[in-house]
Amino acid sequence: MKPHNPDLVIGDDGLARPIWAVNDPQLRNYYDTEWGLPVCDEQGVFERLCLEGFQAGLSWRLILQKRDNFRAAYYNFDPDLVAQMEGIEHLLNDERLIRNRLKLQAVLKNAQATIAMREHGGLAEFIWSFQPDETPLPEVMADVPTSSPESIAMAKELKKRGFSFVGSTICFALMEAIGIVDTHLVGSWRRGSSGVWPC
């Protein structure tokens, strides 16, 4: 049985999900258990910001496949440990990672910038300060924005503070991933599940 919305599919469990989260088990699990739920700790926000940077130009499925490898390479995204790394040359030879020099180096730079932000409330508090007054209400995938005034402002301020790979699209994807906005399609079983926004 298919719902009226062409971008939502009823799964074998009777729950409606967007098309992208239906067929691939890893994407489905990510959608069902993680995407859009609030993340408010420094390490969690730092990891997701870095992973969104790695995703630029690539598929999120690929990032999920390599996430454990990234966690191993970057000390579980502990900013203090990452900031002490002497370089990324050894990572460029690691076939388990995305071997893009600029992206790999950005994690070290972003760790240093994250540590510097502790004097001003910290990364998580800063990122969450860009929560808008209302969230999108997308009916179909075409309604889901890829940036917002808040993500544009966030990207600008992060760059001022020394972060890399933090464009407005990456920042908006981060906002979606950690619950700052809710872009679950109206009618999806996950709509409103973050507790941050009403259905």
Commentary on this structure:
This protein is mostly helical. It has a domain of 136 residues: Hypothetical protein, domain 2 (Endonuclease III, domain 1, Orthogonal Bundle), CATH 1.10.340.30. It has 9 helices and 2 strands. It has a two-stranded antiparallel sheet with strand order 1-2. A hairpin with a 5-residue loop joins strand 1 and strand 2. Helix 2 crosses helix 3. The chain is globular and about 55 Å long. InterPro entries: Adenine_glyco, DNA-3mA_glycosylase, DNA_glycosylase. Its EC number is 3.2.2.20. Keywords: Glycosidase, Hydrolase. It is an enzyme of class 3 (hydrolase). One of its GO terms (molecular function) is DNA-3-methyladenine glycosylase activity.
Q: What is the topological layout?
A:
Blueprint: E1 8-10, E2 16-18, H1 25-33, H2 42-55, H3 60-73, H4 79-83, H5 89-92, H6 101-117, H7 123-128, H8 149-160, H9 168-177
Antiparallel strand pairs: 1-2
Helix pairs in contact: 2-3, 2-6, 2-9, 8-9
InterPro entries: Adenine_glyco, DNA-3mA_glycosylase, DNA_glycosylase
Protein name: DNA-3-methyladenine glycosylase I
EC number: 3.2.2.20
In short:
This protein is mostly helical and 199 residues long. It contains nine helices and two strands, in the order E-E-H-H-H-H-H-H-H-H-H. The protein has a domain of 136 residues: Endonuclease III, domain 1.
Mean pLDDT comes to 95
Find the count of extended strands (DSSP E, 2+ residues).
Answer: 2
What's the CATH C level of the domain at 42-177? Mainly Alpha
Largest sheet: 2 strands, antiparallel
Principal-axis shape: globular
Q: What is the element string, with H for helices and E for strands?
A: EEHHHHHHHHH
Distance between the termini: 23 Å
EC number: 3.2.2.20
Keywords: Glycosidase, Hydrolase
InterPro entries: Adenine_glyco, DNA-3mA_glycosylase, DNA_glycosylase
GO molecular function, one term: DNA-3-methyladenine glycosylase activity
